[in-house]
């Protein structure tokens, strides 16, 4: 994963709450075995509607999505994050997020910015009034700024997520440094095994 | 020192390392794998020349994409077929036991773990699927993860995991006749809302929960994620031990007795503090169903479609209005006057043997209403064989239900079982999101008894609304 310090770009006001991961990327897209190409499936059921905000020319090329409460609830599909990033988003701003979605985002470098509902509403009205407005999400300082309005809001990132974003850490690589502790744990405390339960063909033995 | 909750006990017992400035690392006892969220994870392993650390703690099954047609019908969709083949290849390459389509142990991932006895109290269990919370019914810490985390667990058998907040959901009192586990959890999700459990692990407790069978507890824990919670837990008790005894993955004899003694310690201490607590009176519960497009939008089956005006919060009013528009419902309509096109009995929420017995006992009273398609999709081949041994398949078939092969099926419509645009379903699954069961489809979540009664009536109904066979 690439390190992320600052996301600077235009925003899109999605204007919807309870955007579950089934809406972000419908299940028909989950059959793919690749990690790329999901951008075409992003919000695919809504994109058929010419009025849908992502179809508006003035919001093309925006990199920050602004949405209502409970963004990314539901299924654990990381495909939702891949779709948002493949489409071009680098940050999502919302009053609240699904836990697994937020976690998945942090593994890919998609920044999730949690602000109060009133602030998100304010941001949405700024963006509706002026689609060319530039937003700045600063991961290091944990602030979101709208320079043109002199508007700044602090947000909080889980410290482990913040470190991961700033350092572009590969989690598996980090964990591998604790391999001795894992070995010890397995020797002393973890005894469960499926070994011997099934034969070669997966049938229960005996 | 204050007592510890069940969650804290399991979490602490699995702590491998708590490095400064990083997330704590917890050990994963069992990793369940299916075809949808794993191919990119296996690719990641190959890319970095990593192996699967513990194939003997990893178990795979095909479920999301498998057709529910007879087994000799090939998988028609080439992309689904490719994904199933990728699972075959990956499991062969990395030495993981796999139950492919048609295998005697194959089924929905959250059905097979418990029935094989490999989901056990005190374990940590993960799967690239949010309904992994199901296994919490055994007093296991079980939660869904994304594909990057699937790769992480494959490679290291651990996961960075910070401590969650804890919530006690207590349901006290006798459960009224006709009220099922599904009704309990729909009422809980309705009360908490889809975000109410975010950041929490829920422990379900109280006499109503204790009175549930293991299958009922699984139904409740399954839908914890619908309230946004990471996981749900029920402390193991004699019901749990009786269910586990004799299952393939569970040791027998003295070793079993020794395990039971350790499992008995898996409960929250009486003085353990929870970060949040809610209390429900079981006596108030009635059969529930959803009317909207998220699982918290629930009402009694004998109730009416609400109006946006019933909600104080303006944002909530907007989302209710949107949901009603999508669902094509008008405020004030009696839910019993709403007719359905499709009835789906299946999914990891309600496709176990007790669910099928309940549904069959209602189905036996009549015939599926004209114009309604009713599907029964057992959760696994083991469930299917058991049901056939009991003659339930014949009951369903005689009543006009389709009796199909196991899989996730219409729960998410990745296989050919889908709603067509505008169709309305009564479904025993767990998500009624827009388009979840097929583009433009309208889903109402119900219990197996309500699903079967609705199939006979042609509109939403409880078993008390459908009489005996004339
Ligand atoms: S039955 Fe539905 S909810 Fe359960 S694992 Fe399958 S798709 Fe997911």
> How far from one another are the termini of chain B?
65 Å
Share in β-strands of chain A: 15-25%
Continuous helix count of chain A? 8
Secondary structure: number of strands of chain A? 7
What is the number of E strands of chain B? 19
Helix amount of chain A:
25-40%
Describe this structure in words.
The complex is a heterodimer of chains A (206) and B (470). Chain A is an alpha/beta fold and 206 residues long. Chain A contains eight helices and seven strands. In chain A, strands 4-3-2-1-5-6-7 form a seven-stranded mixed sheet. The radius of gyration of chain A is 20 Å and the shape is globular. In chain B, 31% of the residues lie in helices and 16% in strands. Chain B has helices spanning 6-13, 39-47, 78-94, 109-116, 147-156, 181-192, 207-210, 214-222, 238-244, 253-263, 314-327, 353-363, 381-389, 392-398, 448-457, and strands spanning 15-17, 25-27, 30-33, 58-61, 97-99, 124-127, 141-144, 158-160, 165-172, 200-205, 231-233, 276-281, 288-290, 298-300, 342-345, 373-376, 402-403, 424-427, 442-445. Chain B has a five-stranded parallel sheet. In chain B, strands 17-16-15-18-19 form a five-stranded parallel sheet, covered by helices on one side. Chain B is globular, with a radius of gyration of 22 Å. The model of chain B has no long low-confidence stretch (mean pLDDT 96). At the A-B interface, helix 4, helix 6, helix 7 and helix 8 of A face helix 2, helix 3, strand 5, helix 5 and helix 11 of B. Residues 63-64, 108-110, 129, 131, 347-348, 408, 411-412, 429-430 of chain B line the site of iron/sulfur cluster.
């Amino acid at each position: 994963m690439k390190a992320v310090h600052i996301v600077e770009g235009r925003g899109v006001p999605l204007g919807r709450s309870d955007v579950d991961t089934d809406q972000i990327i419908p299940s028909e897209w989950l059959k793919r075995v690749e990690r790329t190409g999901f951008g075409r499936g992003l919000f695919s059921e809504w994109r058929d509607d010419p009025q849908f905000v992502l179809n508006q020319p003035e919001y093309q090329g925006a990199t920050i999505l602004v949405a209502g409460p409970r963004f990314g609830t539901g299924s654990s599909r990381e495909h939702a994050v891949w779709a948002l990033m493949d489409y071009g988003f680098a940050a999502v701003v919302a009053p609240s997020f699904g836990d697994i979605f937020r976690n998945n985002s942090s593994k890919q470098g998609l920044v999730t910015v949690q602000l109060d509902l009133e602030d998100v509403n304010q941001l949405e009205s700024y963006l509706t009034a002026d689609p060319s407005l530039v937003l700045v999400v600063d991961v290091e300082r944990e602030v979101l700024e709208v320079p043109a309005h002199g508007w700044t809001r602090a947000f909080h990132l889980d410290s482990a997520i913040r470190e991961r974003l700033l350092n572009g850490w590969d989690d598996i690589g980090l964990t591998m440094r604790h391999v001795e502790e894992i070995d010890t744990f397995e020797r002393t405390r973890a005894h469960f095994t499926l070994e011997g339960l099934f034969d070669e063909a997966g049938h229960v033995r005996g | 020192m204050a007592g510890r909750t069940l969650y804290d006990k399991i979490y602490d017992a699995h702590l491998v390392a708590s490095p400064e400035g990083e997330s704590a690392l917890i050990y994963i006892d069992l990793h369940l794998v299916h075809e949808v969220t794993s191919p990119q994870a296996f690719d990641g392993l190959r890319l970095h020349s990593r192996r699967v650390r513990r194939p003997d703690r990893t178990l795979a099954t095909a479920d999301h994409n498998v057709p529910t047609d007879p087994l000799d019908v090939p998988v028609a969709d080439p992309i689904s077929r490719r994904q199933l083949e990728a699972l075959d290849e990956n499991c062969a390459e990395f030495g993981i036991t796999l139950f492919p389509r048609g295998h005697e142990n194959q089924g929905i991932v959250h059905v097979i773990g418990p029935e094989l006895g490999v989901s056990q109290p005190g374990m940590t269990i993960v799967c690239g699927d949010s309904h992994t919370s199901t296994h919490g019914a055994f007093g296991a810490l079980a939660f869904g993860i994304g594909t990057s985390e699937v790769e992480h667990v494959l490679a290291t058998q651990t996961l960075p995991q910070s401590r969650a907040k804890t919530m006690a959901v207590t349901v006290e009192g006798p459960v009224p006749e006709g009220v099922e586990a599904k009704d309990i959890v729909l009422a809980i999700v309705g009360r908490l809302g889809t975000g109410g459990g975010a950041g929490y692990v829920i422990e379900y407790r109280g006499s109503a929960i204790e009175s549930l069978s293991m299958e009922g507890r699984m139904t409740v824990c399954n839908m914890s994620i619908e309230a946004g919670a990471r996981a749900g837990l029920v402390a193991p008790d004699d019901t749990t031990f009786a269910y586990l005894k004799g299952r393939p993955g569970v040791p027998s004899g003295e070793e079993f007795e020794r395990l039971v003694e350790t499992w008995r310690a898996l409960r929250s201490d009486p003085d353990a503090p929870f970060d949040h607590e809610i209390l429900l009176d079981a006596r108030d519960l009635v059969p529930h169903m959803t009317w909207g497009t998220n699982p918290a939008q629930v009402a009694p089956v004998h109730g009416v479609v609400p109006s946006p005006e019933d909600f104080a919060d303006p944002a909530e009013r907007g989302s209710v209005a949107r949901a009603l528009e999508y669902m094509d419902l008008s405020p004030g309509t009696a839910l019993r006057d709403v007719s359905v096109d499709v009835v789906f009995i299946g999914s990891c929420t309600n496709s176990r043997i007790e669910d099928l017995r309940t549904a069959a006992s209602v189905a036996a009273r009549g015939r599926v209403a004209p114009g309604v398609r009713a599907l029964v999709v057992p959760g696994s081949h083991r469930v299917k064989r058991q049901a056939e041994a009991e003659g339930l398949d014949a009951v369903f078939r005689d009543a006009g239900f389709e009796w199909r092969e196991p899989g996730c099926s219409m729960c998410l419509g990745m296989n050919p079982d889908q709603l067509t645009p505008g169709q309305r379903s009564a479904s025993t699954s767990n998500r009624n999101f827009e388009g979840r069961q097929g583009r433009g489809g309208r889903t109402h979540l119900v219990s197996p008894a309500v699903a079967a009664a609705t199939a006979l009536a042609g509109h939403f109904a409880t078993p008390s609304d459908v009489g005996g066979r004339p």
